[in-house]
TrEMBL record:
<dbReference type="InterPro" id="IPR050137">
    <property type="entry name" value="PyrR_bifunctional"/>
</dbReference>
<protein>
    <recommendedName>
        <fullName>Bifunctional protein PyrR</fullName>
        <ecNumber>2.4.2.9</ecNumber>
    </recommendedName>
</protein>
<dbReference type="InterPro" id="IPR000836">
    <property type="entry name" value="PRTase_dom"/>
</dbReference>
<keyword id="KW-0808">Transferase</keyword>
<comment type="function">
    <text>Also displays a weak uracil phosphoribosyltransferase activity which is not physiologically significant.</text>
</comment>
<dbReference type="InterPro" id="IPR029057">
    <property type="entry name" value="PRTase-like"/>
</dbReference>
<dbReference type="InterPro" id="IPR023050">
    <property type="entry name" value="PyrR"/>
</dbReference>
<keyword id="KW-0328">Glycosyltransferase</keyword>
<feature type="short sequence motif" description="PRPP-binding">
    <location>
        <begin position="94"/>
        <end position="106"/>
    </location>
</feature>
<feature type="domain" description="Phosphoribosyltransferase">
    <location>
        <begin position="5"/>
        <end position="153"/>
    </location>
</feature>
<keyword id="KW-0694">RNA-binding</keyword>
<comment type="subunit">
    <text>Homodimer and homohexamer; in equilibrium.</text>
</comment>
<comment type="similarity">
    <text>Belongs to the purine/pyrimidine phosphoribosyltransferase family. PyrR subfamily.</text>
</comment>
<dbReference type="Pfam" id="PF00156">
    <property type="entry name" value="Pribosyltran"/>
</dbReference>
<comment type="function">
    <text>Regulates transcriptional attenuation of the pyrimidine nucleotide (pyr) operon by binding in a uridine-dependent manner to specific sites on pyr mRNA. This disrupts an antiterminator hairpin in the RNA and favors formation of a downstream transcription terminator, leading to a reduced expression of downstream genes.</text>
</comment>
<keyword id="KW-0804">Transcription</keyword>
<dbReference type="GO" id="GO:0004845">
    <property type="term" value="F:uracil phosphoribosyltransferase activity"/>
</dbReference>
């Protein structure tokens, strides 16, 4: 069974609220860098950066991170660590953006990749959906919506840029 838990309006509202919270907690914005986790986190990161630019007039550096080869619980198909950040991050205030937070292993891997690439001053985490079930001491700083799930359930995040619509669904068993 599938249930729509966020429509386009709810999704855009949540992203706008997260944007305001990021601005509020990062007065000045000078050192802010937005990093989106591929695939859908990258689109959300781009949107947040665009909204910050519209609201504050500051164009922020935005980049993507692909951590598929960095996870500790998946076979490493690529012996070279491809998860490198392509922009300078030392001394920066990073906001990591992902669509769904679950066990926390993806974020742990992203933190590894970031630390391998430089020494940021601060890293915070923004997610559209927190579905619970953390296996590591990782918590988001900015959350669109908390959706308590069972392990068997899953969340489908759809974004206009690749899915031709904005919507979040819960696939129930
Ligand atoms: P974690 O590493 O925290 O277990 O899982 C988070 C990563 O896996 C995120 O990058 C997210 O895209 C993906 N993920 C985990 N659970 C779900 C889910 O229910 N729905 C979607 N769309 N992605 C998920
Ligand atoms: Mg993902």
């Amino acid at each position: 069974m599938t249930k729509v838990i966020m429509d386009a309006t709810a999704m855009q509202r949540a992203l706008t609220r997260i944007t305001y919270e990021i601005i509020e907690q990062n007065r000045g914005l000078e050192n802010l860098v937005i990093i989106g986790i591929e695939t859908r986190g990258a689109y959300l990161a781009k949107r947040i950066a665009q909204q910050i630019e519209q609201l504050e007039g500051s164009k922020l550096p935005v980049t993507n991170l692909d951590i598929t080869n960095y996870r500790d619980d998946r076979p490493n198909t690529d012996s070279t660590n491809s998860a490198r950040i392509k922009i300078p991050i030392t001394g920066k205030n990073i906001v990591l953006v992902d669509d769904v937070l679950y066990t926390g292993r993806t974020i742990r891997a992203a933190l590894d990749a970031i630390m391998d690439s430089g020494r940021p001053q601060k890293i915070s985490l923004a997610v559209l959906i927190d579905r619970g079930h953390r296996e590591l001491p990782i918590r988001p700083d900015f959350v669109g919506k908390n959706i308590p799930t069972s392990h068997e359930e899953s969340i489908k995040v759809m974004v206009n840029e690749v899915d031709q619509q904005d919507q979040v669904r819960l696939n129930q068993v």
